[in-house]
Design a protein that fits this description.
By secondary structure, this protein is mainly alpha-helical. The chain has a domain of about 45 residues. It is built from 2 helices and 2 strands; from the N terminus they run H-E-E-H. It has a two-stranded antiparallel sheet with strand order 1-2. Helix 1 packs antiparallel against helix 2. The termini are far apart.
Length: about 80
């Protein structure tokens, strides 16, 4: 699964280079320049890619680490307590 997500990331990075739309003056829906429409679609694809990365590739052990200012239970310290 991780290698498939790596391929998706590489494809998304390659699609970011949209040099083929630089001189195209076409409009989408009659008002939106095609380059801007492409970037809207690309942004949604980037969001979906990040969701995949967080869901399937994010290391689970990072959630168990204690951060400064938090008790060992992993729950945040209530406001005004335990911090100076």
């Amino acid at each position: 699964m991780k290698w498939m997500i790596a391929i998706v990331v590489i494809v998304v990075l390659a699609l970011h280079q949209d040099f083929w739309l630089w001189h195209n003056r076409s409009l989408v829906l009659g008002f939106l320049p095609i380059g801007l429409a492409y970037h809207v679609a690309y942004s949604l694809l980037a969001v979906a890619t990040m969701v995949l990365l967080v869901r399937f590739v994010w290391p689970a052990d990072l959630e168990a680490l204690e951060t400064p200012g938090e008790p060992a239970t992993g729950r945040p310290v209530p406001f005004g307590r335990g911090r100076s």
